[in-house]
Amino acid sequence: MRTMCGAIVSGLLLLAAVPPLPAQGEDDWQSFYDGSFRLANARAWVSDLTRSAKTAQGLHIVDPSQEKGSARLYFAPWIVDREKGIEAEARLKSVSCSEGWGVVLSLADGMHEEGITFYPDRVELSHARVSAAFNTADAFHTYRVRCQGTDIEVWADGHLLIDGKGKFSAPAHSGRCQIAFGSGSSTAMGEAYWEYVRFRGAKTEPKPKMTVPKVPGLEIVPGEVRTILPDRQYVSMFKRADGALIVGDRCSRDGGQTWERAESFHVGAYQFPDGEIVQLGFATKRSARPGWFTIPLKRSRDGGKTATTEDALIHLPEATGGTGDDGKYYEGPMVDHAIVGLRDGSLLAVMYGYFKTDTVLCPTFPPEWKFYKYRTWVVRSTDRGRTWEYLATVAYDPEVGLESFCEADLLALPNGEILCFMRTGGSGGKHTPLYLSRSKDDGKSWSKPEPIADRGVWPNACRMKSGILVCTYGRPGNWLCFSTDEGKTWTGHFCFYDGPTTSYNSVEEVAPDTLLVVFDRQELNDDGNLTRDVVGLTVKVRRLGR
Questions:
Q1: What would the mean pLDDT of 250-266 be, rounded to a whole number?
Q2: Pairing mode, strands 308-315 and 387-395
Q3: Distance of alpha carbon 501 from alpha carbon 359, whole angstroms
Q4: Residues 458-466: what's their mean pLDDT?
Q5: Which residue ranges make up each domain of the chain?
Q6: How distant, in Å, are the alpha carbons of 136, 288, 289, 507 from that of 160?
Q7: Is the confidence at residue 11, as pLDDT, over 50?
Q8: What is each CA distance from 356 to 196, 319, 373, in whole angstroms?
Q9: What gap in Å lies between CA 57 and CA 59, rounded to an integer?
Q10: Is 362 helix (H, G, I), strand (E, B) or coil?
């Protein structure tokens, strides 16, 4: 560890060998935070176990937790020239920091990254394990970081603290290229006041513009976005037989123009021809009978005005519990977001999880979690949802995707065929294709899954009265695509929203040739908190030449 005097002396000697630090306030600086977040693409990893607030001294960020998932890190992608280098500057006062990344300014150029951690008594390159003594807690100080090639320098108030020649060498996680600040580790605790963060030598990615492709035979015209549920994260949409749309506890009878309170149902609900609605929960639990699992079943016998909840039973002789992608243990597999009616009046629901033999680890999660690659299968009910029996596996192949097959959606076609759309990736900052399988025998057997998009978490599909099939999917971004041949080919893929979002979307036709896509979007307010809104986008889609 270098002493403060040594750091200052070294800095003074090096000043003759490197260009002097430019004065603040020059036009080429771009602000990330200066009392407000200035970048349109600024994002955040924000846990409820942490807090932040705008104060007279700056953005006060407090991370008092060491629990899994706890952090408060603000980041924004940028475009850099590694040969020319990048430069970032932050003015802050550190209060406390328990370990690396607890109070951090992080720079990544797509190949390398480093986190400059501000302990009360020192500044450290957390990957390189190089530090210099400095009192970061006595007052606000201005820190400047220069990265060029594999070299990194850290300056404090115009003096060189760390000359990290060859030390900017840690691989960038998942190839990320970004600037970040705050508290960036679940296991670290930290508290600091940040007056501003700015940078130069890099370009921020421009705010994405929606580009709608020209599709032969189709006209696609996006409309306006309306807020449905302010201050809420993603809530999916269910369309009742009378055309009413349900999003959370809101109902629209005019295609999403206005909303009123109503009984809540989600996209996985199913309405019988006589009006009764059933909806399965998400996670199953083991029952006392071997091979059987219980799950909540919501039921409405008056068309959705009121509802009751009961326990349904699912018979899955080979299924077992396991770790989910949140690191928590689940007693049994999950029911995902689709129930369809079969030609004989029975119901088909799709599930995912593990059979006892499914033990291939997913590479984007810590191996100690024992998070395995998923299997997707269908179950059938002949008693209006009270009991369900395993029918068939739709897809399982640990060689496909990052997670194998999960988060499936079902779509029943007029000719009796059933389509199953499945996620295979989207965790760890990586994505793999969205797959589609089809059944011609009411779910007893399924075709080999084929990719239909290059990404796709939580797909949802609908069939328009014109015969056009629509699928929405995402991560990164929120996307739509179309099929005019009952799902054999897909075209017109376009991103309709590319801001911070869960990338979970649902879609329904709400009027002739008019879709409503429901999704969530997030924005950072001046206090460093995420505001989440559930919104709806209308999209006109019609066949040309009709």
A1: 94
A2: parallel
A3: 31
A4: 98
A5: 4-204, 218-543
A6: 14, 67, 69, 55
A7: no
A8: 52, 6, 12
A9: 7
A10: coil
Measure CA 21 to chain center: 39
Tell me if 4-204 shares its fold with 218-543.
no
- CA–CA separation, 89 vs 416, rounded Å? 62
At the second CATH level, the architecture of 218-543 is 6 Propeller (2.120)
CATH fold, domain 4-204, is Jelly Rolls (2.60.120)
**What is the distance between the alpha carbons of residues 355 and 376, in angstroms, rounded to a whole number?**
10
Q: What is the pLDDT of residues 148-164, one digit of tens each?
A: 999 999 999 999 999 99
Nearest to 488 by CA among 535, 431, 438: 438
Q: Omega of the bond prior to 476 within 30 degrees of 0, cis?
A: yes
For residue 385, which amino acid is it? Answer: G
Structure tokens at 301: 């016998």
Annotate 18-79 with three-state secondary structure: CCCCCCCCCCCCEEEECCCECCCCCEEEECCCCEEEEECCEEEEEECCCCCCCCEEEEEEEE
- CA distances to 61, 139, 507, 508, 541 from 514, in Å: 44, 58, 10, 9, 6
- Provide the 8-state DSSP code for 304: T
Reported residue count of the chain is 546
CB neighbour list of residue 193: distance below 8 Å, 6 or more residues apart: 55, 57, 58, 59, 60, 61, 92, 93, 95, 140
